[in-house]
Amino acid sequence: MSYVAPLDHLRFLIHVLGRSSSRSDADLVDAVLESAGRFAQQVLAPLNATGDRLGAEWSPLGVRAPEGFREAYERFASDGWPSLSAPAVYGGQDLPQIVVTAVGELWASANLAFALCAEASIGAIEALIHHAAPELRDRYVAKLVSGDWTSTMCLSEPSAGSDLSTVATRAVPHGDGYRLFGRKIYITWGEHDLSANTLHLVLARLPAAPDGAGGLSLFLVPRFLPGADGSSTVANDIHAVSIERKMGLHASPTCVMALGDRAGADGYLIGTPHRGLACMFTMMNVMRLGVALQGGAAAERAYQLALAYAKERHQGRDPAGRQTAIVNHADVRRMLLTMRVLARASRALTLTAAAVLDARRAASTNDVQQQLQARADLLTPVAKAWCSEAGIEAAALGIQVHGGMGYVEDSGAAQIYRDVRVTSIFEGTNYIQAQDLLSRKVLKDNGRALRLLFADYAHLYTEGSLPKPVCAALEDGRALLDAITVWVNEEAGKDPLLVGATAVNYLMLLGYVLGAHLCAQAAAAATAAEAQGIIGAALAREVQEDAEFFVAYLLPRARMHGEMVRAGSELLARINPAEL
C-alpha cells in the first residue's frame, strides 16, 4: 500500500496553530506542502521497504547507502529541501518552523531512515549559527543549507552513553585548530555516500579541562578537509570502523567512528572552551522535536497501512450471515481510531511546539521572548517522549490489526514497529525527558509555565461547539493535573527519590491531558475551517470525532498515570536491587 501524505490535516493544523490570516502565507504553505507531499509519495516512500531489506553496507572503502538513496538525496538537495528553515543570508528560505516541522513529518512517514540524515543538518545549522565563530559559519553553514554536505552529532562513547560526564575523546591544540582522538558510537549517518562531505559536531575534552560534563567542548570535524577553493578532497583522520546490526532503520547507517587513528582528526572549536554541552543542546533540542514528529509520522503510516488492510481483509460474519471486512468489527475500529487519534494528537503537539518557537522569534520584547522560551522548554520533553510512545503504540496496534500477516515482513507493518521503536531511546531516553520535565520545567518554577500554558485553553471548557461531556472531561483532566503537580511539589522536598520514581508517569499524565486539549482545540476550530474551505466536511467530522474518542478512550489513562505518581517511591526504594 502506498503512502498518502496527510496534507489536509497538516494544512488545517497550521491554520489553527500558526494563526496567520495572510492569503499569500496560506498559498505558500499550500505550495510547499503539495510539493513535499509529492516528493514523499513518489520518491521516498518507494525506497522505504527496499532500503529496509538491503540495508546500508560497510567496507574498508566506506559506507554505502542502499540502492536508490543517493539519487533520492541528490534530488532532495537540488530541489532545495535542506534550505527550508535556514536564514536567507546563508541561502535559506527562512520559512516558519511550523511549516518546516510539517514537511519533516512527511519525510519521516515516507522513509524514516532517509529522514534521519536530513534532520541532523537542520540541528547543525542552528548550532553553528548560534555558537560558531563568523569564519566557521561563513565556511560551513552554506554547504549544509544547500545540501551539498550533511552533518552528524557525535556524543556517545563506549563508556559514555546518556551520562556524558565520562566522555574521554581528547582535543589537543594544533596550529589554528585542534587534533581530536577517540571513539564515538551510535552515530546516525556517520559515514555514507549521499553527499560530498559530512560535518561532525563532536564533544571532546581539552587538556586540563574540568572533570564531568562541565569540562566538555564542542568541535566541528569535517570528514574531508576543505581546500582554499572550497573543495573537499583531503580525507580527515575520522572514519567509520563499523556499522551496527540493528532491530530496524537498516537503511540508516549507525556508525562507530574512530578519530585520530593516525595523526589526529582536525577540528575547530565551536563556542567557548568547556561550554560544549550548552552549544550541543541547541542542536539536541532541534533533534528532540524531530523525534516527536517521527513518532507521529510512524503512527500515521501505521494507521494508513492498517486501515487499508482492514477494509480488504474479510473475517467473520455480519448479522445477515455474510462474510464481512474486519473494519466492521468493533474492536478493530477501536484500534484504528486509537492509531488515528494518536497520530493526530502527536502532530498537533509537535506543531504546537514549533508554533511557539515561531512566536518567540517574532516577539518584540524580552519578557515575551522569555515566556515563550519557557513554554518551548516545557513542551520539548513532553513532545519527544509522549509522541514517541504514541508512535510505538500505534505501530504495535498496526501489527495487531493485520493479525498473523502483521508478523510477516511482507505486510510492512513490522518494519514500522522496528523502525520507530528506537525513538523512545535516542536523543535522550524518555526517562531522561521525564526527569528534565518534572525537575527543571515544572518544579523549578513551581509550575508557572505549566499554568500559563493551560490558561490558553481555558476557553475550551465552555466552548459552545464542543459536546458538553468533552468540555467537562477537559476540565476534570486539567484539575487532576493541577492536583498531582501540587502533590509532587509538596512531596519532592521530603523524598529525594520521588522525581526519579514518578517522572515518567507524570510526563505521560501531562501528555494525555494536553493531547485531549489539543484535539478539542482542533474540533472547536473545525466548523469555521470547513466554512472557509480550509477542510472538507469529511475531515471536519473526523476532527470532531477525534476529540470525542480521545476523551472517551485515551484521557482516562491520565488518571491511571496520576495514581501511579501518587504511589511515590516507597515500594521502589524498599525493594533491594540485588534481589531483582
Describe the structure.
It is a single chain. The protein is an alpha+beta fold and 580 residues long. Helices cover 57% and strands 13% of the residues. It has 17 helices and 14 strands. Strands 3, 4, 5, 6, 7, 10, 11 and 12 form an eight-stranded mixed beta sheet that branches. Strands 1-2 form a two-stranded antiparallel sheet. Strand 13 and strand 14 form a beta hairpin. It is globular. The mean pLDDT is 95.
Comma- or semicolon-separated keywords:
two-stranded antiparallel ribbon; alpha+beta; eight-stranded mixed beta sheet; 580 residues; 14 strands
SSE-based structural type? alpha+beta
Helical fraction equals 55-70%
What's the rounded overall pLDDT mean?
95
Quaternary state reads single chain
Please tell me how large the radius of gyration is.
24 Å
| Structure summary, number of beta strands | 14
Q: Which stretches are poorly predicted, pLDDT < 50 over at least 5 residues?
A: none
Summarize the structure.
The protein has 580 residues and is α+β, with helices and mostly antiparallel strands. Helices cover 57% and strands 13% of the residues. It has a domain at 439-571.
